[in-house]
Structure to design on (1108 residues):
């Protein structure tokens, strides 16, 4: 398309979106603002900037160049924050290694990403010892440690430098050049249910736009601004996982006080919340459960705490409990592939007058799409379904901050981006107010007459019948409908022989009509079985049951 | 610089920053939200989107193609909002014509921008009649009117279509394609003190980033979020001027209720504030003065009104008066060349506990730079001055949303961007808290020993002496200091002969030491004169006085 672009006489106006530019404003408006590691180390943004320069100079001295990959294994620390900036600002790629992976997975990801340098916390030296001989590309190791004694032991590799010594000997005056905003800045690996971890990756431009988009939504979409420069930020999802949801970048851009807690220990988290005045965090439900369940949490005043819950569905009971403690708890939705934030569950003024129970329903929804996020619910032909809070389909998305694909995995990348949208493999609906509700993973839905039908919803409905002990709903091939839902039902012993499959089907059909379930749910068939197959960890093994449902009747 | 860019197997992930994408979120989260014109016409975002499609189809039917320029002459209206989106979304350039210009200037800007199409409100037909014969490129005219009768009169040009009829006959299903985000989206003209108006221009990418940056700052920088989706927006700086500071784009992106007032009449503005519940606006001090001074304003509850003041310095007295009415009044800083917003005067929680007088000082400062805004105060060698609230220099800036230059004016463009930063020609300082204070225009400062010295500050100091009737401070060439300030002083008749130049200089020097003025101010020389030269509008004619100060003594 022809466009009327005026040729400027100078290219001085060009302004690539680079991570280094997130540091511009805080150094003017908050140079004295604090960053603390566990409350025992503390410095200001001016010092942060100097240490970022020193780290870059130090790494350059070790031979790190633009285009290389620098991997980090650490808990959440000020050091990690420094790496978040210094490594991409040099033009290198930051690989955030998932330290919860087993050693073989860690080895795989370091080799697959072709990491050149590894910064490793002394706590992980045993892991490193078990894989060091098989690292194919890492040649340089830098040791991170909270504790000099721990770092003085025998090393499984030749350590090129200790982190603090490296910084102390290097100049703060590293010149961070401008370069292409599409340069890769970070990479990390995500696990599926099968196979090796898959690498996703983000550019400078994407991380900057994600920071702006989140800040715009947190200020602009909720009735009250939810994130402002007087907030105190502490991550509670790890920095190795989707850059702690990008919030270290956002917090820095806004000049917030930042608190890094190291490894997530409930007593330490409780202490930091109290002593440092934490007001803004994000975590998965499990971590919040751990924190609120800790004895120290009982005396904490949590009424200034704003907390994004993500990673898995938030139980409404948790939202109610949090509400009673005064916490402003709300859901965020996204995944590793999406940088991650796509939606946030913002409330309106009137919503905030609702009871805890009523608010919980809204707070547990997945939320409203951020600006620029093109979030759709589509059927199998990529057609939009109605925004009526009932019609469901796959969540597909475009936004300026999605991974381009999986690292060195062209087939999976093409699948991920089929039809020009990133496929989340999540099933959900959107209501008239724009709230996304994610209901299922795609593997848990059955495509009946071309429409997604939730097996989990059907299971919920059938499980409510007093005769039912356990139920698994699977899809079975059907000439007319493509697939039909089949409920494999284990009856309570005392009900065996007293209820017909037909009667249970009718019970379900009536409940389906009254529920938000797909109308095709009524095509449900019921089969009473003698056993259900489960996996080694006790989950329903639907794959095997679907393969031969008849066998379960014997 | 080599960068490790992974080649994706698909380019589906590419997401150019285009104006059309600002519409994505509101259509999901606020499809029923209202947009009203003067309270007498009202529709929702779904209808806005349909009308944008119709306008694009209608314009395409008139021959408008990507790359062409569509000029608009209208007061602030829903039609203008539709043009803000439809024209750039087609790949065409929207020229917002300053209807306050005189007809010759309007003619100049339409010819200079090579406008192809003109959408003109029937109110401006007399202007059009006076220039129609000399329009060099405009071939197609579309008539806008609030009033069918007014539009039925004799036309000075052949009208291709009436706006509402055009929309009514066109399809809402215009397919807005993706294209290069650097495509030019808008252009408009700004006046200097001399010469013809100069054209500035902005790309899709720049307008989208400006919207995100403003939203991030309005939510994230103030103690409380200052702009959220339950706000009701009404512009009070015109849409023809820097796109009403970009707020129609921002308000749309966030899904706000929007109120367009037409021409700014204080009674209409007061009525709309009350009837439509306006909570967010922006204006120059003069307009606020007009509104607050109107009889209808006395009964208005303005305690929910947030108002950005810009365009010229906000008097502290105005901030105090606004505070007493409960208005959250704060300064924004920028100019036509900067899209415009660079800084906003956000307060902290503790600041908001201060007295009205103390807050006024902060609210009247020019504010804190937005995220990504690289705002510097530099001396003549482009070296940063200290952020101590005293050292002053020129404000220079980089950000992702600055004009690339002046349209078809290579020399002025190069001057604007000298040294890789956009030169604002404003003089100011930054304090330790990051607040910018703009003190002078560059033509009002004197460069002494390489340091900017404010002539206005020196004039204020000297004017405090009881003997002084009028004073003008100009710079005179000096071998050692480059320039030295020279005070041309007209004494009150009764003091003539009773005060020496030397005594007044010493009085000034002492006051300079105690003030925030440059230390080089003490190099001030004093010359008693018999007259001061003024321009035709009564301003000091410093240019002529500087040329021959000696002549003023005779």
């Amino acid at each position: 398309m022809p466009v009327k672009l005026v040729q400027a006489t100078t290219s001085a106006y060009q302004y690539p979106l680079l991570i280094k530019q997130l540091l511009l404003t805080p150094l003017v408006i908050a140079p004295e603002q604090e960053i603390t590691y566990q409350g025992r180390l503390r410095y200001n943004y001016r010092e942060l900037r100097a240490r970022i320069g020193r780290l870059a100079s130090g790494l350059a001295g070790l031979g790190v160049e633009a285009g290389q990959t620098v991997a980090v294994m650490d808990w959440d620390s000020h050091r990690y924050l420094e790496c978040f900036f210094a490594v991409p600002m040099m033009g290198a790629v930051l690989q955030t290694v998932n330290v919860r992976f087993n050693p073989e997975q860690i080895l795989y990801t370091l080799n697959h990403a072709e990491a050149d340098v590894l910064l490793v916390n002394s706590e992980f030296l045993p892991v490193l010892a078990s894989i060091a001989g098989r690292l194919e590309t890492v040649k340089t190791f830098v040791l991170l440690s909270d504790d000099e004694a721990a770092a003085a032991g025998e090393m499984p590799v030749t350590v090129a430098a200790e982190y603090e010594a490296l910084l102390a000997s290097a100049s703060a005056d590293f010149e961070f050049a401008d370069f292409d905003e599409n340069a890769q800045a970070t990479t990390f690996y995500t696990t599926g249910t099968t196979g090796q971890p898959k690498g996703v990756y983000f550019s400078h431009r994407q991380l900057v736009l994600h920071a702006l988009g989140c800040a715009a939504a947190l200020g602009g979409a909720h009735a009250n601004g939810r994130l402002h420069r007087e907030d105190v930020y502490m991550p509670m999802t790890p920095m190795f996982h989707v850059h702690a949801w990008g919030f270290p970048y956002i917090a820095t851009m806004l000049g917030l006080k930042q608190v890094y807690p190291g490894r997530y220990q409930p007593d330490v988290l409780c202490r930091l919340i109290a002593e440092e005045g934490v007001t803004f965090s994000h975590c998965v439900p499990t971590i919040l459960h751990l924190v609120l369940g800790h004895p120290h949490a009982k005396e904490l005043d949590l009424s200034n705490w704003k907390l994004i819950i993500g990673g898995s569905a938030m139980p409404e009971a948790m939202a109610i409990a949090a509400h009673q403690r005064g916490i402003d708890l709300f859901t965020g939705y996204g995944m590793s592939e999406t940088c991650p934030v796509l939606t946030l569950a913002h409330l309106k003024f009137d919503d905030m007058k609702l009871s805890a129970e009523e608010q919980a329903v809204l707070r547990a929804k997945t939320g409203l799409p951020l600006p620029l996020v093109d979030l759709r619910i589509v059927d199998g032909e990529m057609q939009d379904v109605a925004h009526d809070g009932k019609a469901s389909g796959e969540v597909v998305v475009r936004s300026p901050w999605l991974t381009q694909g999986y690292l060195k995995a062209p087939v999976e990348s093409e699948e991920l981006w089929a039809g020009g949208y990133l496929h989340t493999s999540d099933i959900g609906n959107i209501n008239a107010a724009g709230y996304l509700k994610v209901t299922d993973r795609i593997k848990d839905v059955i495509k009946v007459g071309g429409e997604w039908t939730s097996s989990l919803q059907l299971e919920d409905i059938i499980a409510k019948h007093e005769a039912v002990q356990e139920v698994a709903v699977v899809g079975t091939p059907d000439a007319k409908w493509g697939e039909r839902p089949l409920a494999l039902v284990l009856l309570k012993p005392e009900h065996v022989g007293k209820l017909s499959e037909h009667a249970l089907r009718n019970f379900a059909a009536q409940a389906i009509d009254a529920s938000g379930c797909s109308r095709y749910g009524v095509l449900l068939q019921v089969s009473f079985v003698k056993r259900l197959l489960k996996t080694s960890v006790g989950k329903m093994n639907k794959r095997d049951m679907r393969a031969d449902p008849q066998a379960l009747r014997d």
